[in-house]
Specification:
Helix 5 (about 240-255) crosses helix 6 and helix 6 packs across helix 10 (about 325-340). Helices cover about 45% and strands about 15% of the residues. The two termini are about 40 Å apart. The chain has 20 helices and 16 strands. It is an alpha/beta fold and about 675 residues long. Strands 5-6-4-7-8-3-9-14-15 form a nine-stranded mixed sheet, with helices on both faces. The chain has three domains: about 40-140; about 155-230 and about 360-515 and about 545-625 and about 630-640, 3-Layer(aba) Sandwich (Rossmann fold), CATH 3.40.50; about 240-345, no CATH class.
């Protein structure tokens, strides 16, 4: 299947165009042939015998009397004239009765002949009707066979892509397993199309494990940072100029507030700019934190001087910058508050090492990061990425795709900065929210964005989502969607393994009700980055049809064999009697509150503005569907504009070649950007 080059694949739509034709038409049963009834013929003969019995008696008596009269006349016992007259009379009676008997027999034979003719005519009519029934049955059988072939070989799953003009997808609700499915489906599609994927996993739940395993199976070695342990080796946010660094740290310092005020941000930015100017215009986060401690006169600055974070002269200048007046105490208090927040980021970029290029980058929060620490790190990563995207030349739509999982941890103004920067740089953005609070609800679908609603356990949020979608919409849920949704759970037995650290191995297994698991191990001895078999996944889109097809087939095979979703999907379809039975429709439902609360894990309802108005589509983000023979990379609209392959020997249609879009734009690099 050819990947969609300039679109984001978010799932698959179950929409079989050909319904089940049902059982084959019954063969016509020949009726019993009409034939002359022996009972009727016997009855006719009995009736004729009863009717002709007096005539036969009269005939016999007349013959007997005639013979007697003739005999008596011959022997002279009676007068010859009398005897002759008697014989003549008896002959007349015998002739009349015999003629009547003959007519009765002829009438009987005529009735029997007429009945035989009627039976013959009816038999010919029956045979004619039978031949017509058989011809009609043959025609209906041929039509049924065509429908059956079309039904068995049709595509049942069609790609659901973000439409042209949409640069952002907001995912509202969902579980960790559902997000894993969505991320693997969309990320695999982008990698297969030669794009780049960056994942910010703020969930602390290792959602991108399947995508990482899939990328390794496809020959792409991802770069993985697990924070805060990998902060020293994370170069994101390093090398910024004074203004950008001050803005970044000011946003991070105000993370505990629900909404940072313009006054506080202006004051924090000014203080940070002063500190950075004293430090020489370019500084690390650790140096800025040390400068804030010196400014607030918190602790002994000689410790920071000994650690090489600041010099003694810089410490003296910062200490003497403000006095103890009431106005100045406000500045010193803000400096102390900012230092308390930025202390967690002090190791950032302190132990950088050269890293190979990779099409997949994952930055994730560890499980022991803490509530405040997670918000600090999430804001730092998001604002740093916003600055990076702002300095990036625009490329093709969705060439670089950024996934932010757990975006509800970010403040509204931080989300706005990231969405604006993504739109300006033509970077595809996927924001996934566990809940839809006030700040999220105000931003769902804002601008050129599509909204995908997944399972919403909270009743109030489910009600709000159903009202936004519209309760009049009716959808068909596939049996496969419900089956897999029950099989895959949200528990995972392991976390990420950093490729920037020195971990020796990782074991990953999704806990499922059917007991499926997978394990992967990677090791090295020099403590450096895990070297990939391919440092990059930078294949040009115009490299050729065969190359694009092989990449896509490789990704599809990797989805089926390298992910928990693919394994579970293969097992679900393999346990069924036929593929069609495993993919049949399960039930219909209306978009109502209780339905959104019990959606399968990978099911999503996508809504976006299209040329024909607001479109609402039911999709399944299960990445294992892409490896099924009943799935296609074409959308339902694209397939309707193509000839029906099922009615032409049930063959797969030729994959459409990727368009010649010219050379790809420069890849996003955290270390190569305009200052």
């Amino acid at each position: 299947m050819s990947p969609n080059v300039n679109q984001l694949l978010v799932g698959y739509q179950y929409a079989p165009p050909h319904p089940d034709p049902g059982p084959p038409p019954r063969r016509p049963t020949p009726p019993d042939q009409e034939r002359l009834s022996p009972d009727w013929a016997a009855a006719q003969r009995r009736e004729e015998s009863l009717l002709s019995r007096p005539l036969k008696a009269a005939f016999g008596i007349a013959v007997a009397l005639g013979l007697a009269a003739f005999a008596l006349g011959v022997f002279g016992l009676i007068n010859v004239l009398v005897a002759g007259l008697g014989v003549i009379c008896c002959a007349l009676v015998a002739a009349v009765s015999g003629y009547a008997i003959w007519q009765g027999e002829r009438a009987l034979r005529s009735r029997l002949a007429d009945e035989r003719a009627r039976v013959g005519t009816m038999r010919a009519a029956q045979e004619s009707r039978l031949f017509a029934w058989q011809a009609d049955h043959a025609a209906r059988m041929r039509e049924w066979e065509e429908l059956r072939v079309a039904y068995e070989h049709q595509k049942r799953w069609y790609a659901v892509c973000a439409p042209d003009g949409v640069h952002r997808v907001d995912v509202a609700g969902g579980t960790l397993s559902g997000w894993s499915a969505m991320l693997t489906t969309a990320g695999a599609n982008r990698l297969a199309a030669g794009g780049e994927v960056t994942v910010l996993d703020l969930t602390e739940g290792a959602v991108a494990l399947d995508l990482i395993g899939l990328a390794r199976a496809a020959g792409v070695e991802p770069l993985v940072w697990v924070l805060p342990e990998d902060l020293p080796r994370l170069d994101l946010g390093t090398g910024l100029g004074r203004d950008a660094l001050a803005d970044l740290l000011a946003q991070v310092a105000s993370v505990t507030g629900e909404q940072a005020s313009a006054r506080d941000l202006s004051l924090d930015t000014s203080v940070l700019e002063w500190v950075i100017d004293v430090l020489g215009g370019e500084a690390t986060v650790a140096a800025v934190a040390a400068g804030l401690r010196a400014l607030a006169q918190a602790g002994d600055p000689r410790d920071d001087v000994a650690a090489g974070l600041i010099t003694a002269g810089q410490a003296d200048r910062l200490t003497a910058m403000f006095g103890r007046a009431a106005t100045e105490r406000v500045v010193l208090e803000r400096a102390w508050i900012m230092e308390a927040q930025l202390r967690r980021l002090a190791p950032a970029g302190s132990a950088l090492a050269p890293l190979p290029r990779s099409a997949l980058r994952v930055v994730a929060l560890g499980r022991r990061v803490g509530a405040v620490g997670s918000r600090v790190l999430a804001t730092y990563l998001t604002v740093a990425l916003a600055h990076l995207l702002g300095d990036t030349e625009p490329g093709r739509p969705w060439q670089h795709t950024l996934f932010v999982l757990g975006a509800d941890k970010l403040r509204g103004d931080v989300l706005d900065r990231l969405t604006d920067a993504s739109e300006q740089s033509a970077t595809g953005l996927v924001l996934a929210y566990r809940g839809i609070g006030v700040q999220v609800r105000q931003r769902l679908g804002r601008g050129n964005a599509a909204v995908a609603f997944m399972r919403l356990g909270n009743a109030e949020e489910a009600k709000a989502a159903s009202e936004q979608i519209g309760t009049e919409h009716r959808f068909v849920l596939s049996q496969l969607t419900e089956t897999i949704g029950v099989s895959v759970t949200d528990t995972t037995s392991s976390a990420y393994t950093s490729t920037a650290g020195s971990a020796d191995s990782t074991t990953t297994s999704w806990s499922q009700s059917e007991g499926l698991s997978r394990s992967t191990g990677h090791g090295h001895s020099d403590g450096s980055l895990l070297l990939p078999s391919r440092a990059s996944y930078s294949r040009s889109v115009q490299a050729g049809d065969s190359q694009s097809t092989s990449e896509s087939e490789s990704v599809s095979a990797s989805v089926s064999t390298s992910t928990a979703w693919g394994l579970t999907t293969s097992k679900a379809t393999g346990d069924s009697e036929t593929l069609a039975r495993a993919l049949q429709r399960s039930r219909e439902f209306l978009v109502e509150q209780h339905e959104l609360q019990q959606l399968p894990a990978s099911a999503m309802i996508i809504t976006y503005a299209g040329p024909a108005g607001r479109q609402v589509v039911m999709a399944d983000a299960n990445p294992g569907i892409g490896g099924l023979g009943a799935a296609t990379a074409l959308t339902l609209e694209e397939s309707r504009g193509r000839p029906d392959p099922a009615r032409r020997a049930a063959r797969e249609p030729a994959d459409r070649p990727p368009p010649n879009l010219g050379p790809p734009p420069p890849r996003l690099d955290w270390r190569n950007r305009r200052s």
